[in-house]
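Example (one chain per record):
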Amino acid sequence: MTGDFSKVQGDFELQPLDNRLVASAAALLDAAKIPFVLWGNYMLTVFGIPTVVNGIDFAVEDDFMGAAYNSLRGADFKECKSESCNGNKKLPYCPTPHIHLHITGSERLNLYKKSDLLWIFPSLSNVDGRNIILASDPKQLPGPDILGRGGRFQQDLHPVRVPCISRLVQALLLLAKKDQSTYGGYWMNWISYIVEYCTENGAFDKDRLTGNYKIYINAFLDGDHKLRDQAFERLDVAVKVA
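Predicted structure:
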């Protein structure tokens, strides 16, 4: 970011980028009845995956994008005034948010369209345990690691919705196929992280997968590249999973 943003911020100060700030943003969206789920690297940390976090990402139902932006703007988050901000650029290695706000000059709150990421999900507001769970769910999510990092949210925070991991894996495989010529490798990296860390911590149960999704993951674990590639080719990005 350039110095322009600091001038816009003035003396405004935010609380640190942590679970409480994420929950505060979620509370603003819920107050406005915005269907959303947590997304991006912060979501991965909730699943017990160690990763660098430099912002907050939400996937939002398409028709509510404007309302989501307006609900967050002027609260703890500020409009971007810099054309050189990466949030305004089309990057070759990861998707660009539909719109974004700033936490600090370098930390962003990004909003992505549901139709671009999670079109197989029937809703982003219904916590049904099959598609959507809470970030504080002790039955499906791990606690913090030995150093107190990552893992599920505290129970005393405002509820934050996240995708169920098995359903997320399905969505990521479809994203990897849809974006083969652009960000396919980016989504495949997420799948690798989930298989590695969430199988070990018990958050990912591959037996909840079916069809070619299950064949792909089993072949991935077995190192059967031929079967894995065959299963991947059979995936239909137009299919919605109810």
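Caption: DSSP finds nine helices and seven strands in the chain.
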